[in-house]
Design a protein that fits this description.
- There is one protein chain.
- The chain is an alpha+beta fold.
- It has 8 helices and 14 strands.
- The strands form 3 sheets. A 7-stranded mixed β-sheet has the order 3-4-5-9-8-7-6, with helices on both faces. Strands 13-12-11-10-14 form a 5-stranded antiparallel β-sheet, with no helix packed on it.
- The longest helix has 19 residues.
- The termini are far apart.
- The relative contact order is 0.11.
- The model has no long low-confidence stretch (mean pLDDT 92).
- The structure holds biotin.
- The site of biotin (BTN) has 20 residues, from helix 4, strand 5, strand 8 and strand 9.
C-alpha cells in the first residue's frame, strides 16, 4: 500500500489523535514526509484535522469509531479486531450494560453464523451485535430476530434502493444471493427474556462473491463503496424505536410483507431431520409451517432453509 493509503488506514482505525512521530515510525519515513502526505490529502479534500498533538480523521462516514456516533457514543464499543462481537456483547450484557449497547468490529477472527457455521469476516463488511432487553416472554424471543431483519431490510430498501427480501428465518437476500446474516442469542430470567444479543453481518465494502457464488455485497449492488456508519445509525434509529414499542403482530405482518420464502418449495435442515414441502406460513412465534408431500403440516422453529428444493 502507498504511503497516503497507509496513513489513511492508520487514522481510520485510531480511536484518538495520532502523532506525527507515531506515523513516522509506522511508515518508516520522516515526519516532514508525513506532513507532506497529510497536506496533499487535506488538499484533496480528506477531512484530516491537524493539531499540535497530531492528526485525526474527522467525520469519516465509513468510520465505526464511537466518536462518530454523536449522542450514542457511550453505547458504541468499537474494536479493531475481536474473536466474535457475540462474545463481547454477551459479556457486556452479563455485566449489566444498558439496552442498545453495540459492539462493532472491523474484523472477527472467529465470527460465527447460525447452526454452528463460521462467518467469514473480510475487511470492509459491517459486523456488530446489539444488546436488547425486551420485556417479552421467552417464547417470543425469536421475534427480536425477525424485527432486526425487518428494520435492516427497510434501511436497505429505503435508503439504498436495494431490493432486499427476507428468507426464513432471517437472512437478507437480493436475487437469491445472501447480503446479510443475523444470529441472535437469548438469556432467560425465568419465563421472561433477560437480554437478547442480535448479531448482524452485512456485506458492505467487502467482496464475498469471490468465496461464495451465492453471496453479494452492497458495493456491488450500488456500484461503489457505501459508508458503514450511516447504515448502522439508520438501523439503530429504526430498531430502537421498534423495540421501545414492541408489537409482535406488527413485526410479523412486516416480516411477511418482505419475505421471499412463503409459497416456495423448500428443504429445511434441522439438527435432527430434513423437512421438505411448500413453505405455507409462519406462526405467531416465528416458526416456519411446511406442508409436506404427504399433506401434513410441520412447524420448524430452528433450521436452515433452502429454496426451490425437491427431493
Ligand atoms: C448466519 O447467517 O448464519 C448469521 C451470521 C451472523 C454473523 C454476525 S457478524 C456479527 C456477529 N458476530 C458473529 O460472530 N456473528 C454475528
Amino acid at each position: 500500500m502507498d504511503s497516503k493509503t497507509h496513513i489513511l488506514d492508520i487514522l481510520k482505525h485510531a480511536d484518538q489523535v495520532v502523532s506525527g512521530e507515531t506515523l513516522s515510525a509506522e511508515l518508516g519515513i520522516s515526519r516532514v514526509a508525513i506532513w507532506k502526505h497529510i497536506r496533499n490529502l487535506i488538499q484533496a479534500g480528506v477531512p484530516i484535522v491537524s493539531s499540535p498533538k497530531g492528526y485525526r480523521l474527522e467525520n469519516d462516514p465509513d468510520s465505526l469509531h464511537s466518536s462518530g456516533f454523536g449522542a450514542r457514543q457511550a453505547l458504541i464499543h468499537y474494536l479493531h479486531e475481536t474473536t466474535s462481537t457475540m462474545d463481547d456483547a454477551a459479556e457486556l450484557a452479563r455485566r449489566g450494560c444498558p439496552a442498545f449497547s453495540v459492539v462493532v468490529a472491523e474484523r472477527q477472527t472467529r465470527g460465527r453464523g447460525r447452526m454452528q457455521r463460521v462467518w467469514l469476516s473480510q475487511d470492509g463488511g459491517l459486523y456488530f451485535t446489539v444488546v436488547v432487553r425486551p420485556e417479552i416472554p421467552v417464547v417470543q424471543a425469536g421475534m427480536a430476530n425477525l424485527a432486526a431483519a425487518v428494520d435492516l431490510a427497510d434501511v436497505l430498501r429505503t435508503d439504498y434502493r436495494i431490493d432486499a427480501g427476507l428468507k426464513w428465518p432471517n437472512d437478507i437476500l437480493v436475487d437469491n444471493r445472501k447480503l446479510c446474516g443475523i444470529l441472535s442469542q437469548m438469556q432467560a430470567e425465568g419465563e421472561q427474556v433477560g437480554y437478547v444479543t442480535v448479531g448482524i453481518g452485512l456485506n458492505v465494502n467487502n467482496s464475498p462473491e469471490t468465496g461464495e457464488s451465492n453471496a453479494v455485497s452492497m458495493q456491488s449492488l450500488v456500484g461503489g463503496p457505501v459508508p458503514r456508519r450511516k447504515i448502522l445509525e439508520a438501523f439503530l434509529d429504526r430498531f430502537e424505536k421498534r423495540m421501545a414499542a414492541f408489537d409482535p403482530q406488527v413485526v410479523m405482518a412486516q416480516w411477511k410483507a418482505l419475505n421471499v420464502t412463503l409459497g416456495q418449495t423448500v428443504m429445511v435442515l434441522t439438527i435432527k431431520e430434513k423437512i421438505e414441502g411448500i413453505a405455507e406460513d409462519v406462526d405467531a412465534l416465528g416458526g416456519l409451517m411446511v406442508r409436506q408431500t404427504d399433506g401434513t403440516l410441520k412447524t420448524v422453529m430452528v433450521g436452515d432453509c433452502f429454496h426451490n428444493r425437491k427431493g
